[in-house]
Amino acid sequence: MENILDWDWFIKKFEVLSKIDLKAYKRPQMERRINSFMRSVSVSDYKSFVDLLNNDKIVYRRFLDHITINVSEFFRNANHWEVLEKEIIPMLLKERNSLKVWSAGCSTGEEPYSLAILFQENGYPLSGSILATDLDDEVLEKAGAGLYSNKAVQGLSPEQLKKYFESQGSYYRAKDELKKIIRFQKHDLLKDPFPRDYDLILCRNVVIYFTEPSKFRLYERFATALRIGGVIFIGSTEQIFQARELNFKSIATFFYQKY
Ligand SMILES: C[S@@+](CC[C@H](N)C(=O)[O-])C[C@H]1O[C@@H](n2cnc3c(N)ncnc32)[C@H](O)[C@@H]1O
Questions:
Q1: Which end of the chain is more exposed for a tag (fewer CB within 10 A), N or C?
Q2: pTM higher than 0.90, yes or no?
């Protein structure tokens, strides 16, 4: 396959179709994932692949799942959530009566539901609802439905499951009291305007395939979305390399505060 010309052509066509700008993602990783997907549907050139994506909604959906990697968990990396619960939120509440919270790249909702549980269990006050965003309509729909399999709820304690979910066959559905404190919204972190004055932003396991310049621009925009003193909580394989340039200081592993 001739990759150089084809690749540029493909990402333009793909952006028309999906609004996703693949230029902002690391090319080798994306190319590998895309080529492996193309092999799995027995297509060997980008032109035929774009035709297929345009004509077959199921393949298109499977492809989006393949490249955006929507995997999530309740209280993913539980020890970091403990730091959030015991240290970060109490520190933020010393300065504000209630907190504005955003889960950016929330996938199927496990992260914002974990936040909602944590705030409810501790009686921590929220300012408005938890904003939970993703660029993918389908994961947002799943998140809004709040329906999870037995396996998906493993990160929850039996007490949490009983209190905040109702069982439906072998599934569990988030109760309305949890749902009503989360506002799910479509938002592309690379394109859409950012909200302001947040106290706490979670952006975890989203930037893995972003290029270094797009990561930098993203953290720059998170810095504008946080109030001074606000905190960003990132994924367990991530680090903000130019933290000082962005007026972020590391206050615990995976937590940076804007100063
Ligand atoms: C691996 S999931 C992370 C879910 C959750 N934050 C966690 O850590 O469990 C990554 C999510 O980032 C979303 N994503 C990727 N690029 C994005 C972008 N440009 N804007 C918004 N969301 C994006 C994907 O759609 C996917 O749902």
A1: N
A2: yes
